[in-house]
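Listing S7. Sequence submitted for prediction.
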Amino acid sequence: MTSPLRIDRVLGGRPFAEIGEPALAVADESRGLLAVAGTYAFGTAPVGVYDVGDLGCRALLRSGYPVHSMAFHPTFPLLVVGTGRYDGGYFFEGQLLLLDLETSTGVSLIEDPLGRQVLALEWLTGQELRVLMAPPDDWQDKKAWAEGHVVVMRRHDWRVGT
């Protein structure tokens, strides 16, 4: 007689099983949340948001690029995720993803099909997000491997669009 299949055996019975091998983590101590990005493998990099009390997964997002940075919004239940990679030819591709923690809905904030590699994120205020991006390519920008581009994005309500 076989025993019933237990979910903890399928997922490994360990914290962060949804994201595989952890590569990056950021905490929101005021809300008791922990965002953990998994390593990039098989064309995807998972990001899970966990309750620090029981380490239960509250939201899950999958990126098509490696994750470089994450930041919780200071007041809204949102997480921004910066991703990207060099394509090996000319382009620094990537995305700036916004994950709504209440609905588990994720959207890209970069409309360009190639996107941009996002290297660092920092909330300046509840309306302003500082983003450090790689240049779009290294063909015309000889300093592409040494310098990034900084932009401050402003939105009255970051929940709009998620």
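Caption to Listing S7: primary sequence and predicted structure tokens for the chain studied. Residues 1-11 have pLDDT under 50 and may be disordered. The first helix runs from residue 7 to 10.
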